[in-house]
Amino acid sequence: MSDKQSLRRGVSRMQEEARRLQECHAYSCVCLICRYPTSREFNPKQSIHLADIFSVRTVRSVSAEGESMQLLLAGLFACGCVSLVDALPWPAAETYINPLAECSQSSDPGACRTTRDSWKTEYADAIAGKYQGQRNVAFCLSTGCDNAIQPDKILGCAWQIVIAKSGHLERDGTDAANLKHFCGSDYIDQARRQAADAQAKTMSMMIGK
């Protein structure tokens, strides 16, 4: 059996275990995947090409299945099963545009169009480490910004955590309030908050690169 076949076989078994553990929605369960004795031929510390195997982005998903894999990947990072060098690059800004709604259907069409027109610049600023870009991206991912952006509560919270830990001199009380609200238990559950924490750690290491 080739190394690639062995790797894929091992990852397939990891995915099977992930599906069996999904109902507990806790990182303690996800982390068990790293330690599970799948095969003597498979070493989870090996280089895993996530784009080829999972066919999902580490920080982007719109389907229920994609969100489950998003939680799994965040768990793999948190457990140390996958290193940062195996992560996919930042998704293109356009992938966050809401594919299910036209701005004409928004409660505020003008605001929706303005957000979409400026999104590429805001997103580029955010991943470059600029404060205002990060604030705007975090808010739109959490709320959808008048249907302009596909909401992603995990990623929105992750950006709020990045802002909180960034040391930006521009930070003010609204940032603390946003963190409390968009990462709070009334907005996302515990498992998704843990996923956001793990993603924020990875994103902080990627910002500016």
UniProtKB/TrEMBL annotation:
It comes from the Bacteria. This is Uncharacterized protein.
